[in-house]
Amino acid sequence: MSSHRKFLVAGLIALLSVGTGWSQEKKEAPVVPPREGKREVVEIFNGKDLKGWVGNEKLWSVKDGVIIGKNTDEVKVSTYLLTEKGYSDFRLTFDFKLAESEMHSGIAMWGRIAPDKGDPLTYAGHLVMFPSGHGFYDLYGRNMIHTNNEIAAPLSKQHDWNSYEILAQGNRIRFVLNGKLVSDWREPEPDRIKSAPIGLQLHSNKQPQEVQWRNLKLETFPDDKLLTVK
């Protein structure tokens, strides 16, 4: 075989190798079906106090039926208001308002409390981000794992109330913003999913900030349907 022909064959093999690697990287996530369990509505917020939650008392409070996360001094590591119980498959509906600052917030799920990361109540795991910089983030893991900002940003109100629905089943997360489905995503590495506390995020920030939450409703092992899509 001539040197020129050998060069062409070698190049073709290299291209095929790259193509194979690319197809593996882009391989679709497996389909993990919804887990079985007792379907029930859980009162995670009684509208009066933080019973059933764990958080830094200096940062979290309740006023007029609204959970408020607020700081004046620097928050060096993102901290969370966490449910005492853990959840895997659930539907969470709620309203959220970014009252002060431009820093996003989010719902943490499917992970663990991670005091080893610099705050007794920080989180390692999945984070559904809003009301700006939308997407799904793997805290202390793979970083951004899904972006939906192109769809979500035009629907979101940065400093007013927004309504959300998160439907988590198996390895699937569906995310509804103000009545519109903006994400239907599956975790490609299902072993990362754990039954874990749900966390409300107060993001690390050098500036004063305030986040507000109301009308939180949780249903465990829900039906496979969205309730808030218009």
Question: How is the topology of this model organized?
Answer:
Layout: H1 3-25, E1 40-42, E2 53-54, E3 60-63, E4 66-71, E5 79-83, E6 90-100, E7 105-113, E8 123-130, E9 135-139, E10 143-147, H2 149-152, E11 162-169, E12 172-177, E13 180-186, E14 199-202, E15 209-220
Antiparallel strand pairs: 1-15, 2-5, 3-4, 4-15, 5-14, 6-11, 6-15, 7-8, 7-14, 8-9, 9-10, 11-12, 12-13
What does this structure look like?
This protein has 230 residues and is mainly β. It has a single domain (40-220), classed as Exo-inulinase, domain 1 (Jelly Rolls). 12% of the residues lie in helices and 41% in strands. A hairpin with a 2-residue loop joins strand 3 (60-63) and strand 4. It is globular, with a radius of gyration of 21 Å. It starts with a helix and ends in a 10-residue tail after the last strand.
Task: State the gist of this model.
This protein has 230 residues and is mostly beta strands.
CATH superfamily assignment? Answer: Exo-inulinase, domain 1
Topology order in helix (H) and strand (E) letters: HEEEEEEEEEEHEEEEE
How far apart lie the N and C ends? Answer: 66 Å
Give me the count of strands: 15
Portion of residues within helices = 10-25%
By CATH, the topology is Jelly Rolls
Number of domains: 1
Low-confidence stretches: 1-25
Mean pLDDT: 91
Q: What is the second-level CATH architecture?
A: Sandwich
Judged by helices, strands and strand pairing, the structural class is mainly beta
The major sheet is characterized as: 8 strands, antiparallel
How does the overall form come out from the CA principal axes? Answer: globular
The radius of gyration computed from the alpha-carbon positions, rounded to a whole number of angstroms, is 21 Å
Compute the number of helices. 2
CATH class: Mainly Beta
Strand content: 35-45%
